[in-house]
Amino acid sequence: AALNGRGVALDTMGLHAKAQAAYRTLLAREPENAPVKNNLGLSLVLSHRFDEAISLLEPLLQAKMPAGGST
Fold it and tell me: Which partner for 3 in 26, 33, 59, 66 could form a disulfide, CB atoms 3.0-4.6 Å apart?
C-alpha cells in the first residue's frame, strides 16, 4: 500500500517514471492488484505512453464488463 501511495504522490509531482517504478515494484509482488494497475495506466497516459496504457487497462475493462456487454 505504501508503494501505491508513493506512486500517486510522485505522479502528482510530475515524476511519472519514478511513479511507474513504484507501481511496477508493487505489481511484481501483487500482480493482480487492479487499483495499482489502474494507477500505473493513468501514469502511463500522463507520460504519453498511450499504447502501453491501453494494453494494461483494456484487460481491466474487459474483466468488469458483463458477457456480451458493450461500453
Answer: 26
Query: How many residues make up the chain in this entry?
Result: 71
Q: Which three cell numbers stand for residue 70?
A: 458493450
Sign of CA pseudo-dihedral 33, 58, 15, 17? positive
Q: At what angle do helices 2-12 and 16-29 cross, to 10 degrees?
A: 160
pLDDT in tens, 4-52: 999 999 999 999 999 999 999 999 999 999 999 999 999 999 999 999 9
Q: Work out the end-to-end distance of the chain between its first and last CA atoms, rounded to an integer number of angstroms.
A: 30
